[in-house]
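User
Class, as today's exercise, I want you to study this protein, comparing sequence with structure tokens, and judge whether sequence predicts the tokens.
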Amino acid sequence: MKKIFVVIIFGSLLFAGCKKWVNEEPLSDGTIEQFFKSRFDAEAWMSGLYGQFQQLMIGESQFNNRINFWGDARSDNMEHQSQYSNTNTQEIHFNSLTANNAYADWSGFYRIISTANTAIEKFPEINTYAAPGSQDVLSDANLTSYIAQSYAMRGICYLYCTCVG
């Protein structure tokens, strides 16, 4: 009798299913429509924008960062030191970039440009979702500042893409 009862319980649980549990979306899988709802989302987006730029320009290592090699290394103000060089950096120093050079990859800039464009488009919509008078409201000064910073980040990325390449 006990075995039949246990089989019936497990069978009913098996066939009843956990459809709700199986089909739940992960919390980390947000969409762009779910994101821009408060000033905190704008602050997080701006932190991500600057973090992307920092990672692109300085993220590799002290002697291999792109900001030096895209800037001073191509001028006559920097002495070429062979102990820090490899094929990629030698091509930059002697102004002879090839398509296979890792420093000729502009995809990081285009990711930052896309992030800045999204901020410029979505930030003005934030206050339509935030309750008036709440801490979620993005002030006009911060909205203007964040949009201006997004335009500046987009501009410097375009500058690097056109002047360095």
Observations:
- The first helix runs from residue 2 to 16.
- The two ends are 80 Å apart (CA to CA).
- The chain has one domain: 30-164.
- The chain has a mean pLDDT of 79.
